[in-house]
Amino acid sequence: MRALTWHGKHDVRMETVPDPEILNPRDAIIKITSTAICGSDLHLYDAYIPTLEKGDILGHEFMGEVVDVGPKSTLKKGQRVVVPFTISCGSCFHCSKQQFSACENGNPAENQDLGQTLYGEPMSGLFGYTHLTGGYPGGQAEYVRVPFSDVGPIVIPDGMPDDDVLFLSDILPTGWMAAENAQIEPGDTVAIWGCGPVGLFAVQSAFKMGAHRVIAIDHFPHRLALAKRFGAETINYEETDTYEALMEMTGSIGPDAVIDAVGLEAHGFFADNVVDQIKASTFLGTDRPHALRQAIVACRKGGRVSIPGVYGGFVDKFPAGAMMEKGLQIRTGQTHVQKYLPQLLEMIGNGELDTTFLISHRLPLEQAVEGYKMFKNEQDTCTKVVLKPGLELA
């Protein structure tokens, strides 16, 4: 089959690789019909996340048709399914608490040592990411093996187009959980750093959960315009001092809740960010948490901090004093996708959530390399690239 493989920093290739096979009775094989490039994939493309190996197949946002099943899978051939990016067994301690992204069994034992050393506990299993998360082949391919297929995938009703439901695989539940972690109360003002796909879904989700005002922060005009489309007020941090603007907009109190949807590759010419970039380029540091620092400092006393943005290593100049002295509550983590799928699928079906506005480009899978370059270098206008095997461009 054809698949997109990683070979180094900014080096991904379309290659012919062996077809996946059923390895476990709970497995299913999915023929991919739609797969997307995620902002998290750019962290791999930029080689920020360790333990990728040459030839690894990328992609953790995908859906398709069931073409083969193991004897213990609950799926049936011919069903259309969306597959969560988190691989979860459904029966361990954490899965029983619906903390699916903390599953004890999704990540094979041979891949758990480094995560145990870095984080105190091994990471959960994820598709198409690194060997820290299991080294599972991803879905930017023609076919993919789905472990624990009796737990993760959700069957899509006939008549719902791929474009409507594809983002159930990651970014829609991630934006939703980001807003949930912000513990939004009716009348709240919520500030969201980053108007990428997760940030924009967090804007929608925050309003659905009762936020009175949402303030979206970015520097790309088109992405800020998309946030405005859903009712957000906006701050362009290249034109305005973000902290001063937030204080002015909130009567010097600060937002009730803040959401960092940026993560470890913050942009902007700020002193702390410049130092972070120098440290990262000289292997003296890893993450660039400018957005997180700013969010913590801007949040009101007693407020809530939600962090869906991905961080992978260690940070310095973390404003622990502001966090403690203001009594902030912080919640974060990979998304418990399976927990949210039925509710969000119903909301899409009812027209309560707009999921298709985000797609800026639809490309054949064979043009995945060009899709990565575009998503990396044209972030203002390229908001989401969806790859479709066999698609013929008009």
From TrEMBL:
<dbReference type="GO" id="GO:0008270">
    <property type="term" value="F:zinc ion binding"/>
</dbReference>
<feature type="domain" description="Alcohol dehydrogenase-like N-terminal">
    <location>
        <begin position="25"/>
        <end position="153"/>
    </location>
</feature>
<keyword id="KW-0862">Zinc</keyword>
<dbReference type="InterPro" id="IPR036291">
    <property type="entry name" value="NAD(P)-bd_dom_sf"/>
</dbReference>
<dbReference type="InterPro" id="IPR013149">
    <property type="entry name" value="ADH-like_C"/>
</dbReference>
<feature type="domain" description="Alcohol dehydrogenase-like C-terminal">
    <location>
        <begin position="197"/>
        <end position="265"/>
    </location>
</feature>
<keyword id="KW-0560">Oxidoreductase</keyword>
<dbReference type="InterPro" id="IPR011032">
    <property type="entry name" value="GroES-like_sf"/>
</dbReference>
<comment type="similarity">
    <text>Belongs to the zinc-containing alcohol dehydrogenase family.</text>
</comment>
<dbReference type="InterPro" id="IPR002328">
    <property type="entry name" value="ADH_Zn_CS"/>
</dbReference>
<dbReference type="Pfam" id="PF08240">
    <property type="entry name" value="ADH_N"/>
</dbReference>
<dbReference type="InterPro" id="IPR013154">
    <property type="entry name" value="ADH-like_N"/>
</dbReference>
<dbReference type="GO" id="GO:0016491">
    <property type="term" value="F:oxidoreductase activity"/>
</dbReference>
<dbReference type="Pfam" id="PF00107">
    <property type="entry name" value="ADH_zinc_N"/>
</dbReference>
<protein>
    <submittedName>
        <fullName>Glutathione-dependent formaldehyde dehydrogenase</fullName>
    </submittedName>
</protein>
<keyword id="KW-0479">Metal-binding</keyword>
